[in-house]
Specification:
alpha/beta, 7-stranded mixed β-sheet, about 30% strand
């Protein structure tokens, strides 16, 4: 999509408007899927959180506006490194949900892209826990347990496959048939055997990496079902009444990495509960962790809580535009 835009600027001879050419792009779901590889997304997210930790990017908590059963969400952010500002915004209601990312050129203060973001959100939601996992789950031969087998579970698996050496893959779902179908499908796709489990305790026995991606309102597993060393990624619930892991999973861990503390204290049941205890000091925000990750190398029991922030969507949108060859056309 091309055209012209009017730029407002104050001048010594008075205020004026200047016409400049514009290229604005609409990117559909198929184009996102073809241009947002998991490995590259993991790398770009790490760069963005390093930038965030240095104070050169900002990302605000999710804002929800609710009326008559319809929820309108906005997740804004800005990145100096990428020269981009924008947000993921989406609406959800009785007739479904629709997601888009809006990207602005922060140097020229203009809209450059509207990106359909259902697939984008799925990929970056799998990439972020994977990025954290590669720093906290060292060694080889990990036993990986995936809790949940829905739409988002696919990229949770693919993200971990990018960063970890796995000896075994397991999947548990509250509906065993869903776990079995997931295991069959992705065993074929990945070429690795995935075992479905009916019992969460058996699925977690000796697991060293656990990803939970559910909308559960009640804790699915507890500390007693985990071994002596583990890394747990909690990537499902983003409402305060939801809780995937029991309180003791976080309380008895050595380290709890929180994607965005301000947002977590609004949206995460697990983090809200932990913040009210004497164990709250073990929490560190991801932007701070990523700058000093070597300081946590000896942590044997770790948890990462992810809910999604706009900075990740801006980074993912940038990858899509770059891989489509569109960044050089913006101007």
């Amino acid at each position: 999509m091309t055209g012209e835009w009017l730029m407002y600027a104050p001048g010594s001879a008075g205020e004026y408007f200047e016409k400049r050419p514009i290229n604005m792009f609409y990117i559909n779901e198929k184009e996102v899927e073809e241009n947002l590889p998991m490995g590259e997304t993991i790398e770009e997210l790490e760069k963005s959180f390093v930038e965030y930790g240095k104070g050169e990017a900002q990302s605000s908590p999710r804002e929800r506006n609710i009326q008559d059963g319809v929820v309108f969400n906005t997740m804004p952010a800005i990145s100096k490194r990428l020269g981009l500002a924008g947000m993921k915004t989406y609406i959800a209601g009785p007739n479904g949900a629709h997601f888009v990312v809006l990207l602005f050129d922060s140097n020229m203060s203009r809209l450059i892209a509207v990106i359909e973001a259902n697939k984008l959100g799925q990929i970056r939601t799998g990439a972020l826990p994977a990025m954290v996992t590669r720093h906290l789950a060292n060694g080889k031969g990990h036993v990986f347990t995936l809790i949940g087998s829905g739409f988002q579970a696919e990229t949770q698996l693919k993200g971990i496959l990018e960063v970890a050496d796995l000896s075994e893959i397991r999947v548990y779902s509250r509906t065993f048939e869903h776990a079995r179908n997931f295991a069959q499908k992705y065993s074929r796709e990945t070429g690795m055997e995935i075992r479905p489990f009916e019992d969460v305790g058996k699925a977690l026995k000796d697991a060293t990496i656990v990803n939970s991606m559910t909308d559960s309102n009640n804790a699915i597993f507890s500390r007693s079902q985990l071994g002596d060393r583990y890394h747990v990624n909690l990537a499902g619930g983003n409402l305060p009444m939801r809780q995937e892991a029991a309180d003791d999973v976080l309380a008895e861990s050595d380290l709890v990495v929180v994607e965005h503390l301000q947002q977590a204290l609004i949206e995460s049941g697990e983090i809200i509960h932990l913040s009210k205890t004497e164990k709250s000091g073990k929490m560190v925000e991801l932007k701070d962790f990523i700058l000093k990750k070597e300081d946590y190398a000896d942590a044997g029991r770790t948890v990462f809580k992810s809910m999604g922030i706009g900075l990740e969507d801006i980074a993912a949108g940038y990858i899509v535009l770059k891989n489509m060859g569109l960044m050089e056309k913006i101007g």
